[in-house]
């Protein structure tokens, strides 16, 4: 196989949580452009179906939308069963759905803290558990978890988010060890600041934006489409010997 051919995803099926917008949509688009069929998942059917229709028209690939609250085990299992029934298989799981609540610890409620952990940690754990038997039976699988630069560094007012993203990196490492005998790779992408809806309040605040830029050697924030190449690589045969890795894509932020 020629090296560029090893990046192709033709005939494979990807399931992307939180795939209707932001980084999730950019990830889904990259996977579809590389040849994969894509199941886009978010909380509401209308949003998922709209994003899937747009992506299908854009890439010419089979894309379908599904509603699921990834914090609910019954919904997650039903989702996995439905996607496998519709597509016949799942080859790639991208755990992207996420929540961020910022604030000093004394200003956060316990419910806010728990909601971040439920979406960012319990969600990926449930998705992985629901697909474990399918991946093992097929003796193959690619799992890509979305951590954060804050999986390995931190900053004030991020106690809920940093805690959750540190846990995602450890979940990645544990499952990489657990699933290696079954030819299932599990890796974690660690994005730094990207221009997304979740970060809009930060990127549109000139003083905050300037503080972030001072920490980024490349001197700018990332654009969502810049995540695509790394996702396709980790999902493809080109990354067949990579598992348990946490790969920063942050303009050099975590080098400090």
Question: Could you explain the architecture of this structure?
Answer:
- The protein has 256 residues and is an alpha/beta fold.
- The chain has a single domain, classed as Rossmann fold, CATH 3.40.50.720.
- The protein is built from eight helices and seven strands, in the order E-H-E-H-E-H-E-H-E-H-E-H-H-H-E.
- The protein has a seven-stranded parallel beta sheet, with helices on both faces.
- The protein is globular, with a radius of gyration of 17 Å.
What layout of secondary structure does this protein have?
Layout: E1 13-17, H1 22-33, E2 37-42, H2 45-59, E3 63-67, H3 73-87, E4 92-95, H4 110-138, E5 141-146, H5 159-179, E6 184-191, H6 200-203, H7 206-213, H8 228-235, E7 246-249
State the main characteristics.
alpha/beta; seven-stranded parallel sheet; 256 residues; 7 strands; Rossmann fold
| Secondary-structure element order, N to C | EHEHEHEHEHEHHHE
> Quaternary state, please?
single chain
N-end to C-end Cα span: 39 Å
Radius of gyration: 17 Å
Would you identify the CATH architecture? 3-Layer(aba) Sandwich
Biggest sheet layout? 7 strands, parallel
Binned, the helix content reads 40-55%
């Amino acid at each position: 196989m020629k090296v560029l051919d090893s990046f192709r995803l033709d005939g494979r099926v990807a399931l992307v949580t939180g795939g209707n917008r932001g980084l999730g949509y950019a990830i889904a688009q990259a996977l579809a452009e590389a040849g994969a069929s894509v199941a886009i998942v978010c909380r509401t059917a209308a949003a998922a179906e709209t994003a899937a229709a747009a992506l299908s028209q854009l890439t010419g690939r089979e894309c379908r939308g599904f509603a699921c609250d990834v914090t609910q085990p019954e919904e997650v299992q039903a989702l996995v069963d439905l996607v496998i029934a519709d597509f016949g298989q799942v080859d790639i799981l991208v755990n992207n759905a996420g929540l961020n609540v910022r604030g000093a610890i004394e200003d956060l409620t316990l419910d806010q803290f728990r909601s971040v952990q439920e979406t960012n940690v319990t969600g990926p754990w449930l998705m992985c558990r629901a697909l474990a038997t399918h991946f093992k039976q097929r003796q193959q699988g690619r799992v890509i978890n979305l951590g954060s630069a804050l999986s390995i560094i931190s900053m004030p007012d991020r106690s809920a988010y940093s805690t959750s993203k540190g846990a995602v990196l450890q979940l990645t490492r544990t499952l990489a060890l657990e699933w290696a005998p079954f030819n299932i790779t599990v890796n974690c992408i660690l994005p730094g600041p990207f221009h997304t809806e979740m970060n809009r309040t930060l990127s549109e605040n000139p003083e905050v934006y300037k503080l972030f830029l001072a920490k980024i050697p490349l001197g700018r924030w990332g654009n969502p489409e810049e995540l695509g190449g790394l996702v396709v690589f980790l999902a493809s045969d080109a990354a067949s010997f990579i598992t348990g890795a946490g790969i920063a894509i942050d303009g050099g932020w975590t080098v400090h």
